[in-house]
Amino acid sequence: MDQEDAYHYQVVRRAIDVIDASGPEMPSLDALAAELGLSPAHFQRVFSRWVGVSPKRYQQFLTLGHAKTLLRDRFTTLETSLSLGLSGSGRLHDLFIRWEAMSPGEFARAAEGIMIHHGVFSTPFGPALAYGTDRGLCGLGFLSDRDEAEARADLEGRWPGARFVEEPNALCSWVEAAFAQSGDTALHVIGAPFQIKVWEALLSIPSGHVTTYSSIAEAIGNPAAIRAVGTAVGRNPVGFLIPCHRAIRKSGALGGYHWGLPVKRAMLAWESARAEA
Q1: In whole angstroms, what is the distance from residue 178 CA to residue 168 CA?
Q2: Is 172 a catalytic residue?
Q3: Is 241 helix (H, G, I), strand (E, B) or coil?
Q4: What is the pLDDT of residue 28?
Q5: Angle at Cα 269 formed by Cα 263 and Cα 273, nearest 5°?
Q6: Alpha carbon 13 to chain centroid distance?
Q7: At 208, phi and psi to the nearest 5?
Q8: Residue 137 contacts by C-beta under 8 Å, 6 or more apart in sequence?
Q9: How does DSSP assign 107-127, residue by residue?
């Protein structure tokens, strides 16, 4: 993402904060633009370029009630998606993803001392810290609501014994394809068998749609494991690409998000706006 796109995201992010502080009354275009220090016309252009819909419509996507609308209108029945083969290897929905997952034991036996490249990238959701092996991205975390040192410790701790080298150029093509939602992005992740099942289910949720933690539990054949599913969702190592932001509570509440709820709301709003546009 170029500097202009990064600037646009920061404007949108500040708008989210203003909307949150406004309570149930959504501010007018003029009031929102004034709060951000922009003219209404400039603010309108920034929003339209970033998501393809008006600021007013995007504000509606950012409200907490939007999750309930998604549950009503764009709820994904995971059992159907999984039965149609929309998970696992190959191309998955709007993101062209190839993924390879292995258990911690497999990693310990075969990949000790592996080299992992990393770098910080601008994305539609602020700066992101990306990690990748020669097989694909193995970590993606967002830094708008997280300290970078804390995020590094989190993502690097998942690959014990690996050697980390700062080399963003090695990851550029995968990261750019991911946020352009075109081309090819490879993933290489480590997880316990139960976690891998949950992440596979997440990969079957199309952009602009949501599911619930309980639906994921049913889809993987363990309907009583809702709490464990929530934990596995939170341990997803590759934010956005394995779309844990599309899992919400049955009540319509957003639930938690490892990289911060404002980022989760921005992701859902961005995807909804692109789907509408």
Answers
A1: 15
A2: no
A3: coil
A4: 85
A5: 145
A6: 15
A7: 85, 0
A8: 130, 131, 171, 174, 175, 178, 185, 186, 187, 188, 238, 241
A9: HHHH-TT-EEEEEEEEEBTEE
Q: Which two tokens stand for residue 139?
A: 């970590």
Determine contact, residues 230/255, Cβ cutoff 8 Å.
Answer: yes
Q: Which of 86, 205, 244, 269 is catalytic?
A: 244
pLDDT in tens, 30-75: 888 888 888 988 888 877 776 667 777 776 666 656 666 666 666 5
Distances (CA, A) of 20 to 64, 191, 248: 9, 35, 19
What's the pLDDT score for residue 133?
93
**Quick check: 54 and 44 in contact, CB under 8 A?**
yes
How far apart are the C-alpha atoms of 7 and 46, rounded to whole Å? 9
Residue 231: enclosing H or E segment and its boundaries?
Answer: helix 226-234
Rg (CA), the chain: 19
Which SS3 state, helix, strand or coil, does residue 189 take? Answer: strand
Count of beta carbons in the 10 Å neighbourhood of residue 91:
11
Answer yes or no: are the C-beta atoms of 140 and 92 closer than 8 Å. Answer: no
CA separation for the pair 27, 55 (Å, rounded): 11
**What pLDDT does 6 receive?**
66
CA dist 88 → 83, 205, 228 (Å)? 11, 12, 21
pLDDT value of position 69: 67
Contact 140, 267 (CB under 8 A): no
CA dihedral 75, 78, 82, 87 (to 10 degrees): 70
